[in-house]
Amino acid sequence: xxxxxxxxxxxxxxxxxxxxxxxxxxxGRLKQDPDALARVRALHDDRALLRAAxxxxxxxxxxxxxxxxxxxxxxxRARRQRRTVPSIRFALAAAIALAVVGSLTGYLAGEYxxxxxxxxxxxxxxxxxxxxxxxxxxxxxxxxxxxxxxxENPDSGAHGQVVPVRTYRSKSNHWCREYLASKVANDVEQKxxxxxxxxxxxxxxxxxDLYYES
Length: 214
Hints:
The chain is α+β, with helices and mostly antiparallel strands and 214 residues long. Helix content is 58%, strand content 22%. It has helices at residues 7-15, 20-30, 34-59, 64-142; strands at 149-152, 159-169, 175-185, 188-198, 204-213. It is rod-shaped, with a radius of gyration of 48 Å.
């Protein structure tokens, strides 16, 4: 003999809260349980009466006094919101402004640091080139071929040497010298070979790059 259906199961069945398999099982057992079937019918009747009663109340026009009370309640709520919302909006705007300013300040600070670092690197590299150019001029002006002239930038640590390797006159009757130049910076060595000729004012001007390697 199957177990009788309990009231909680019957209520859940009427409300449609059981799983599909359980709904089918209860429907089958109701045929063998007259008391449970009677409870189901009673619950269905009760719910039909409640739905009808609420439907009539919903369709009936609300009392004028109730409408007035609702209007007054909304008016009072609106007044309270007008008093509090501006302050909330102001606080929110202030918080957003502070967040934006903070983020912008951090961004600008980062940009300033990056720009400063790049400018410092560029300045060191420019000084490296200035010291190297001075060493090239010295080597071409005073050193015999094969005699190296060392150079170093103490600020960056870059260093190297310049070695004249050939000397000859150009077709335009300018003295020209071929030279090797090296630079070591951050443990990376760069080498180049070029030709410089002496101009009318006595300065050595590079006229041709023969090769460059790094």
